[in-house]
Amino acid sequence: MQDLRATQREPGQGRQRASLNPESRILNFAAGFTLFEVMLSLTLTGFLMLALLIGLRVSNRAWRTGEARLRQVHAAAERNAFIVQQISSLVPYQVTLNDPSMPGRFTVLEARQDCLRFVSTHSSVYRGRTGLVLVEYGIVEEARGKVEVALRETPVGNNADLYHMLVRSITHDVLTGAATINYQPFVLRPADLILMTGLAAAQFEYLDLHPQKGRGPIWWTDWKGRNDTPYPDAIRLRWLRADQAGEALIPLWANAFPQTETTQ
After folding, report:
1. Highest mean pLDDT among 12-21, 28-37, 174-183, 193-202
2. Environment class of residue 87 by beta-carbon count within 10 Å: exposed (0-12), middle (13-18) or buried (19+)?
3. Contact indicator for 167, 134 with CB cutoff of 8 Å
4. Is 60 exceeded by the pLDDT of residue 204?
5. Nearest Cα to 249, choosing from 88, 45, 15, 24?
6. 99-152 confidence digits (pLDDT tens)
7. H/E element holding 72?
8. Which string of DSSP letters, residue by residue, matches 173-186?
9. Inter-residue contact 207 to 235 (CB < 8 Å)
10. How far is residue 261's CA from residue 77's CA, in Å, rounded to a whole number?
11. Helix %, strand %, coil % of the chain (to 5)
12. Rg of the Cα atoms in the chain
């Protein structure tokens, strides 16, 4: 009887010992993965790595774009601040020349829609130099129907040379005898500084707070000074880039100061 029981227990004890064998567990566990499951896991891992790589590239591109836009904003702010400072530093400058075609005094100011010329104490090129600078802003056409704003600066030396640099000719009205100054056209040169480019449109405007005939303040596109107000009260540069409009408003105090007169 004991031998029979021992014989009956031996198969169960054998199975129990086999289940406790570590090598048997490893073989059973490895046998649970098929080739399809391995390939599927590798594919999912590849997709995860690809998504991570794409995310890194997108974030890097967004960071670079944001940094470029930030630099553009800072550059535009510095440019606008320079324009405001230079134009607001306009010097009321007049020259008396012994020219029979133009007796009297000549006011150094050309204020038109596409050109602004004046004398200033603020320069972007001659910062280490003391004295006055002839400033010339020109709005000229570039390629593809766009316009750009250019700047030219010339140290003021001999007033006769300054006069001939600006004035092309003088015509007189037959009835009134009033003189009309015809300025030299602004032609872009390689040495000129390009301040703004790729604009759809741009123009200068000039504020007259006390126009004649009792009208209210007027913004003129071409300034014609009078004896009581030879200079505008403010200058405005307006521009359009794509569908975004911008402007720089510069108040002037030239009418409140005595004229700088130099006789040549």
Report:
1. 193-202
2. buried
3. no
4. yes
5. 88
6. 666 656 778 899 999 999 999 988 887 665 567 899 999 999 988 889 999 999
7. helix 35-88
8. -TTT--EEEEEPP-
9. yes
10. 35
11. 35, 30, 30
12. 40
Counted residue by residue, the chain has a size of: 264
Cα distance between residue 221 and residue 261, in whole Å:
27
User: How far, in Å, are 136, 137, 246 from residue 193 at the CA level?
Assistant: 11, 10, 20
Spatial contact of 248 and 237, defined as CB atoms under 8 Å apart: yes
For 17-45, b where at least 16 C-beta lie within 10 A, e where not — what string?
eeeeeeeeeeeeeeeeeeeeeeeeeeeee
Report yes or no on whether pTM surpasses 0.85. no
Q: Would you say 83 and 247 are in contact if contact means Cβ atoms under 8 Å apart?
A: no
Query: What phi-psi label fits residue 109: left (phi over 0), alpha (psi between -120 and 50 degrees) or beta?
Result: beta
Residues with Cβ within 8 Å of residue 96, at least 6 apart in sequence? 104, 105, 106, 261, 262, 263, 264
Q: Where are the domains of the chain?
A: 72-263
Q: Which two tokens stand for residue 29?
A: 């566990």
Strand order in the sheet with 260-263: 105-107, 93-96, 260-263
Distance CA 64, CA 218 (A): 45
| Max mean pLDDT range (33-37, 165-169, 225-229, 236-240) | 236-240
**Spacing of C-alpha 231 from chain mean position:** 28
